[in-house]
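Subject: complex prediction, re-run

Hi both,

The earlier run crashed halfway through, so I resubmitted it with identical inputs.
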Amino acid sequence: MGDVTAALPTGTRDVLPVEAAELGEIEGALCDAFASFGYRRVATPALELAGVLDRAQEGGLGAAYRLFDERGRVLALRPDLTVPAARLIATRMADHPGPVRVSYVASAFRPPTPGRAEAAEQRLAGVELVGADGPAADAEAIAVLAAGLGATGLSGFRVGLGSVELTGAVLGALALSEEAEARLRAALRARDHVTWREAASAAGVGGDAARVLAALPGMRGGAEVLEWVSAAVPDAAPAAERLRHTLELLDRHGGRDAVVIDLGVMRDWPYYSGVVIEAYAPDVGAPVAMGGRYDGLAARFGRPRPAVGVAIALEALHRGLAAQRADAEGLHDGVVLVGGMDDAVEAARATREAGIPVVALPRGSEEAEALAAAERWRFVARPDGAGYAVHDVARDERFTCQRLAEGLASRAA
Amino acid sequence: MGDVTAALPTGTRDVLPVEAAELGEIEGALCDAFASFGYRRVATPALELAGVLDRAQEGGLGAAYRLFDERGRVLALRPDLTVPAARLIATRMADHPGPVRVSYVASAFRPPTPGRAEAAEQRLAGVELVGADGPAADAEAIAVLAAGLGATGLSGFRVGLGSVELTGAVLGALALSEEAEARLRAALRARDHVTWREAASAAGVGGDAARVLAALPGMRGGAEVLEWVSAAVPDAAPAAERLRHTLELLDRHGGRDAVVIDLGVMRDWPYYSGVVIEAYAPDVGAPVAMGGRYDGLAARFGRPRPAVGVAIALEALHRGLAAQRADAEGLHDGVVLVGGMDDAVEAARATREAGIPVVALPRGSEEAEALAAAERWRFVARPDGAGYAVHDVARDERFTCQRLAEGLASRAA
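This time it finished cleanly. Structure:
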């Protein structure tokens, strides 16, 4: 029976206390970083009308959980948060003088590809900057991302920047057949460099442009990468110059060290139109953040404005942080109080009011030590005469005190 | 086009910045209150297997959003959070020595009844105390609720306590026909006192018990209500004594003043087995919180343990707080900085690092005052010679400073 009752939908999972607390801290740190740039929190419904989301992009909504409402309309669980945010800003904030800066922390839902270990529900924290264009806006979005990741304590992360505009200019300059171009784009989306090189050499172009084409998805580095592309493919120069200017601004924002040009970055949402962004943490296979510029999206909701945004994948970020943390999990400065549910309710109350969590047990409970060990509370206390006998697990010391709140506060600090 | 693109599913809505920030503060205050009692955060997936949720209660899952997964299994968007929490605790925390204390903040989903203005998505913050029975556990759950509501700043709220056990004892003692009992229970669930009195007088019982029966759903007050029921219906005395003892413990927890016995409280989930809880705020029609004891639920997931829990409805609570707040919304201590996206990136960065949010605009922007007014930022700043010209909207004063961070910090405090 255990297996059956524990069953969950493919790609979903429960989050237990230690991880849930850590995810909560990560969310708090990200929200503070977003707020320091003036991004204001919004929320949209988890369910949207599929027809409205369909309208947001070429080719429609794509894979999503769909269901019918009471009137037979198709609803969808939002598969991303950028489209709902764009819808909200274009409709509910159409009168905002702009630029509009909003943030969100919420779940997006996509049915996992059969046979692949993909998450059905992904918790994302992100920002959208709508109504601002140019390298300054791109740089701000990337700086917010770097500030957010830094605020969580993550070290060694890398933010890769590609450009849909630059890639498009290189492909356009080569006058490829439609078939060759489609094959190259598919390989780039899949980050399949082998297929890319085969398709590039089969495309029948020569010279510098052909060398750029073959090398494109593997090109990583600083401004020198952009200079090489500009020299070889002059049509790509404006897009390269824009990325170069973005790097320059990031230097002044203080987020430059983590940023690398990576022309292999190409997000798989068709709404991206300029810079595309992916962040990676050491020892995490999936990106911890992704985003980019999507200037055409707002117009589809009736209020054209340029826009750029990034979203941080909280569980991937948590894995990155977990890999960097020392194994020893600390004890929590709280007390398991025998009798706190009945004989010592007042002492429990006074201790909570002094800022120390109290986990109450009934009088005579013999589970206190087991509970403290299971949940990693630092103190165990029992009524003892007119006062309390306390075990400080962290120091493995025992002491008594008259008033529990004062006795613990002096040590917990 | 505006109307069409803005369309949302029935019963859903967008949450705009001011409300979203206030909801975030409410969530934070509640989580802190829950943590002070040792409740630890968990999270469960929004989608569950419908068959698993069905098993949790007599009569199955009831109204819910359902859809099919890739294998043809029926999934459901969780219509409440108590059943998923009970599933998680019974399966993933089966080895916990207990009592288990968990909290959550998440959305529950129910299709609105056609023609009624019900929310399809309800954000709830709640606690579950599993593995503890008796008045002490009931009182703790109610004390956590009162502490949480108090921590948000809500005043004048009332926590009503009913008892499924007590109501059942009264109905049982009267030896009613099955039909009469079903009619009375339906009236109680609907809080339809008129139908209740009709059904009670048609039930064909006399004496004290009949008077209690007719009056039951309107009985509100303190311990005297319980004494009256016990005297008239001796079979109800144990349930009444338990409630009385709970009130006594609440007196010591400090949450007694807000609590009232209200035998008309009867939650519409069939899993409740003892105390049932509803909290109301002035000027809010719907309950701001609800919960109760559900001792039979964990056994359905293979690990029998007694349990009690409460959930706070965040949007109803927000309405209650909004009704109590003075109309004037304060200004935020942040600055709209012209040139903060390009010429003054470094000053923006230094000001953020000093703890003051900076909303950056491009050089020469003429939208600064409009943006500050729309988003209620206190300061507007522009580069001026070697320093900055600042408008302090709160005091309607203008001043200049060499370093923006220092110039603002001295005033923002």
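Residues 47 and 181 of chain B are 36 Å apart (CA to CA).

- K.
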